[in-house]
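Worked Example 4.2. Consider the chain below.
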Amino acid sequence: MKIKKVESVEAYLKDFPADTQALLQTLRKTIQAAAPEATERISYGMPCFYAKGNLVYFAGYKGHIGFYPSSSGIAAFTQELKQYETSKGAIRLPLDKPLPLVLIKKIVKYRLHENYDKAAEKERKQQLRMCKQGHQFYKSSDCPTCPICEKEKKKTQVFIEKLSAPATRALMNAGIKSLKQLAKYKAADVLKLHGVGPSALPIMRKALSAKGLSFKR
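Applying the procedure from the previous section yields the following structure tokens:
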């Protein structure tokens, strides 16, 4: 049967004899059940289900129904499809035999997972970024900046081990980012910084002493 140009799946199905229509509707409902999130459209003059890309097509002919799950959908079910005539991307389903609905459902689900996997990989590649330092990372809402740079930044910031975070921030805010810079200050002046408590001074003194340094007198 010559396929006419149609705007909807319903209009496409109406062109077929009642018995063929019934089979096409059964096939359609089986695909919908296997991929409820998929949307319908007309593509290449035949019904197409779409979910993260074209999922499967089907079409009616005079002596058979064509089911098109792409070459990958056929290759994955070679054994189960032995009794049917197939080509690279098509399966011919005779009108005078029951539709293999269980198998069709399996093929549709396989194609659905395949499409979602491809879409996820594509999105992942699109999120691949390179920072100014040449580090590659995947940008996301949880990781908006280069994690390698952030890690290195934290390493440079913590120049006194066991010093509390508030005390470390206080030193950073004052422009003190190394033990040599810290040695230019009196202990009393450092103690005045917001976030530095008395318990922080012994830790600083120990760190300075390990490098042969001390607070300014």
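The domain at 136-210 is CATH 1.10.150.20 (DNA polymerase; domain 1). The beta strands are 39-43, 46-50, 54-60, 64-68, 85-86, 91-94, 128-130, 136-138. Compare this with Example 4.1 before moving on.
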